[in-house]
Amino acid sequence: MVIGGAGFLGQRLVACLLGAAADAPPGWPRFDAVHVLDTVPFTPRDAVSSEVALSSSVGDVRSRADLRAALAGADTVFHLASIVDVGLDKNPLIDAVNVDGTRNVVAVCQELGVRQLVYTSSEDVVLGLEPVSFGDESLPYPDVLVHDYVRTKIAGEKSVLAANDVNTLATCSVRPVHLYGPHDPHAIKVSLTEIARGKLPFLLGDGSARFDVVYVDNVVHAHLLAAARLMDPATRASVGGQAFFVGEGNALNYFEFLRPYAEARGVQLPKHHMPYGLLAIVARGMELVHRVFRVNVPFHRFHLYILGRDFYFSNEKAERLLGYTPWVTPAEGLERTLSWIRVEPLDLPG
């Protein structure tokens, strides 16, 4: 069962579950049927094998009735559905989906006797006032929450991990760092468009800040390894109730990560840097503008803390307990993503 299977990560997870990856590494679980639940109709983007039965339904994690109908008979659930909104305007949907919806998923899994639940969390659950350099899972949740999105992902993860019971429903949480890859509708496309339109006249910081990225198939790999470990009686107890950061050891400065894609599309990155101290003043000022005038602003402390200073993590726990190593190398992930971005329609000026 894949909840949120129509999204960027979900499409790749479903494709791999259906056997589209001929070079799949060892250790993945095998399923006889896959069902996708999403708020939009599911159409596979990638070629899929006919050996595994595929079904789908339209539904919402805010509805336990929708979940009951979709999860009936499920053995393993991957819960990917989430609202990512890092704007400053209050958005009740992120609580309704990320918090209440996740609690609904847990409750229905328990009710229907689902055996395994793998939750897609985020590196952002440890985003706080201090930079993170090679962080691991011993980091606590932050005392000061810099954004509602961070709060809702923490709450969702807590509810999943608290439900872990190796005798009934075993759960774990995968915390991907920043995903990239073909068909990503967000970061690369949005960043290139904004830069090309002159909305980012300076590079953020002095260029030394490191920002973790991971190719989408590596995150799929971690999800499938996590499910396999939860299914195995020998490893169920050691993995159940645990959270795992998942990256690929590819922590670049964000703008250096972006540079080859910009060059592929003829987008000129800004030449000048704005130092962190000045960026902090700008971020506070933008937040003040939002509070006073109730207008959208393009930059605030959430962006500052992720892009303007170190925010990268260790894979050691995932390597040790899940047997994780990146399936796709950074070089191969770059080439695949470049092949896509070269022909992807972008709303660039001129």
Written account of the structure:
The chain is of the alpha/beta class. The protein has a domain of 228 residues: NAD(P)-binding Rossmann-like Domain (Rossmann fold). The protein is built from twelve helices and 14 strands. The strands form four sheets. It has a seven-stranded parallel sheet, with helices on both faces. The protein has a three-stranded mixed sheet with strand order 8-10-12. It has a two-stranded parallel ribbon with strand order 6-14. The termini are far apart.
Structural class, by secondary structure, is: alpha/beta
- Sheet-strand content, in percent, reads 15-25%
CATH architectural group of the domain at 2-179 and 215-248 and 312-327? 3-Layer(aba) Sandwich
List unreliable stretches of 5+ residues.
none
CATH classification, class level of the domain at 2-179 and 215-248 and 312-327: Alpha Beta
